[in-house]
Amino acid sequence: MNSVNSVTAPAAADTAPAGAVRARAEIDLGAVRDNVRTLRARAPRAELMAVVKSDGYGHGAVPCARAAREAGASWIGTATPEEAFALRAAGDRGRLMCWVWTPGGPWREAIEAGIDVSASARWALDEITEAARASGRTARVHLKADTGLGRGGCQPADWADLVAAARAAEAEGALKVTGIWSHFACADEPGHPSIAAQLDAFREALAAVARAGLDPEVRHHANSPATLTLPESHFDLVRPGVSVYGLSPSPEIGAAAELGLRPAMTLSASLALVKRVPGGHGVSYGHTYTTPGETTLALVPVGYGDGIPRHASGAGPVLVAGKWRTVAGRVAMDQFVVDLGGDTAAAGDEAVLFGPGDRGEPTAEDWARAAGTIGYEIVTRVSHRVPRVYVGA
Ligand SMILES: *Cc1c(COP(=O)(O)O)cnc(C)c1O
């Protein structure tokens, strides 16, 4: 069992020996708490659901959910039911919602664990109603409208039918419609015309719910960029994810520091080897880099098996011996190389791949640019081979 990634913060810190680790992802839970407080101040009239799907975007769902609760998150959100069950098993007793369901899913277990579930279609509502009848408990259900994202959610043409079925099941006592919700397509592009169109569609969906006689507890539509930039989208509850971990949802919204956010993860490794090589020496698979002259190479013992994107070959930035270096040649499964030029370093010296940036290190956003992706993916893909070390618990 990989206890480092699955248990409480102090135990995880215990299992990762200080100092001599190959690689470590240090998670600052104080930053998570501060970010949640910052986000709550941006949406002062709404409750906050901290989204901890995919193991808390790679930061560890259990310790991050706990930190978010401490800072006032009254809800926690996950994608899958299994992620929600793991939080219950770790002792989380608060409001908890999950939304990625497939037919035959563990509805009854979720209902009995007091987890709020989501329905985008009649098949889901019918399975929920059946499971609630079987368990004798009242299911808590959020009906999801597709207000324009074109991914999950119920299309406007099918909404009245879904709402009517929910109303009937509620009258029978099988379920309570606790939420009405939807999700943005382009909230990270302020002013995009789809934003206003989605809000209009959401208000229409809410009006249909009211006409049917349903009175949900919470109406919610806002992810991180909407929480930060769009007060009219806050309704009763906001659902930030990436910003809880201190990353900006997009450069267009602003840099993390400008938004009052602090990145919680610092990814570092110990140099495994430092050596002099002659000029004209090929480096790593495919020899896509050749030393321009006699130089010093340093071996950083992390690779795509640790979640370092191979797309960042020849491009990813690393702080070594006080300067930014660039990945020389290809990222391999377990290691990559940086060229230190005329500088020196020793095996065991620290290489910082990314962090908050205030020690001069690159950020996850810098890696995202180097790899042609988004900061979300950089932190989320850091694999379970990298021990998480928690500070600020
Ligand atoms: C991931 C997710 C969020 C959080 O999105 P961020 O952009 O990370 O804030 C909110 N709601 C749903 C449905 C999601 O899937």
UniProtKB/TrEMBL annotation:
Any single Pfam family the record assigns to this protein: Ala_racemase_C
Residue(s) carrying N6-(pyridoxal phosphate)lysine: K53
Catalytic activity field: L-alanine = D-alanine
Record keyword Transmembrane helix present: no
Entry EC number(s): 5.1.1.1
Domain annotation Alanine racemase C-terminal: ranges: 264-391
Record-listed substrate binding positions: R151, M333
Active-site residues annotated for this sequence: K53 (proton acceptor), Y285 (proton acceptor)
Cofactor(s) for this UniProt protein: pyridoxal 5'-phosphate
Pathway: Amino-acid biosynthesis; D-alanine biosynthesis; D-alanine from L-alanine: step 1/1
First-tier enzyme category under EC: isomerase
Keywords, ordered alphabetically: Isomerase, Pyridoxal phosphate
SUPFAM superfamilies: Alanine racemase C-terminal domain-like, PLP-binding barrel
Classification via PANTHER family: ALANINE RACEMASE, ALANINE RACEMASE, CATABOLIC-RELATED
Family that this chain belongs to: Belongs to the alanine racemase family.
Function: Catalyzes the interconversion of L-alanine and D-alanine. May also act on other amino acids.
Protein name: Alanine racemase
Organism this protein belongs to: Streptomyces albiaxialis
Gene symbol of the encoding locus: alr
